Amino acid sequence: MSALAAEHGAINLSQGFPDFDIDPELIRLVNDAMLGGHNQYAPMPGLPALREAIAEVVLRTYNRDTNPQTEVTVTAGGTAALYAAITALVRPGDEVIIFDPSYDSYSPAVRLNGGTPVHLNLLPPAFGIPWQQVENAVNEKTRMIIVNTPHNPCGSVLSEDDMRRFGALCRAHDIILLSDEVYERIIFDGKQHHSVLSFPDMKDHAIAVFSFGKTFHVTGWKTGYLVASPELTKEIRKSHQFITFSVNTPMQHGIAAYLKESSRYTSLGQFYQTKRDFFLEQLKGSPFTALPCFGSYFQIVSFEGYSKESDHELATRLTREAGIASIPVSAFYRDGSDHHLLRFCFAKRNETLEAAGKILRTL
Ligand code: PMP
Predict the structure, then answer these.
(1) Residue nearest to atom 2 of ligand 1 (CA)
(2) Which CATH superfamily is domain 2-16+266-360 in?
(3) CB within 8 A of 268, min separation 6: which ones?
């Protein structure tokens, strides 16, 4: 869709990346690291200073004592963290439960490692976990369950009760819960993010994945990390060592220094809630109905009653003819389920969202 948007000069609310500038202080810190000669390989698990800063963030945010030496691994973005974890732990014949709509890297990563993805559908408008189906799907081959909260593309968040139920299930059947929490800071309306890290009884069964790309508006830096018990971390680093080896050094120095001030990441929810509200204002008078969105920087809209086209046809037509690009939500369902939904990314400057609104209201 990004390619089609570029071809037709459309406003691109399809791919998830911010179009605004990042904090110049972060650039300065990375620049200082480069000028200071920090340009060679970093240690395989990540720069010690960054791992220490991350452990501090995790303690502060989730009240989980975290050992930076044995429980934190810096990765080339959240995607590399997911891939390293799946590669380390999924063997041929293993089953992995994935909830659709899902981030597009989960299923290929499982299949490349010989595993079998078991896709369960989340349904609009709430996209809640289909617990009965989960319980029916678990068997002796189930190795892993992948969850994502706050959720891309749904904007839904898992409740404390959901996390507890996953915990009980994973402990009972010795299953790993791979928790993709790259949008941990982007959560709205007084909701709380329930990280797998805040449940001490999940420690032996949980891996949490994060991304600085989302938190500091630097998706192109591809820098993230994962947190897991020493036993799981040891296994994951065996694959990380040969997938990425080590993540770029100056970014790690810059981010380590930047993390020292917690206000740099704790205000992100409010920042994006304002953006979401601004985008919802822009949608008023358009033929679309916004679904509830409690987190992430994506808004799902229903076009029920506006068009009988498939979501793919509509998204393509809007990009080509109306000059606005979105993603058809069926693209995130393994079975191609089309619920007449489009996903818009609102991590954009107000001018961009305003220009998008003008188009949407003329449809
Ligand atoms: N998980 C989800 C749900 C995402 O939306 C993304 C980014 N689009 C990632 C993981 C990957 O993050 P990164 O860019 O840090 O690899």
Answers:
(1) 103
(2) Aspartate Aminotransferase, domain 1 (3.90.1150.10)
(3) 185, 186, 215
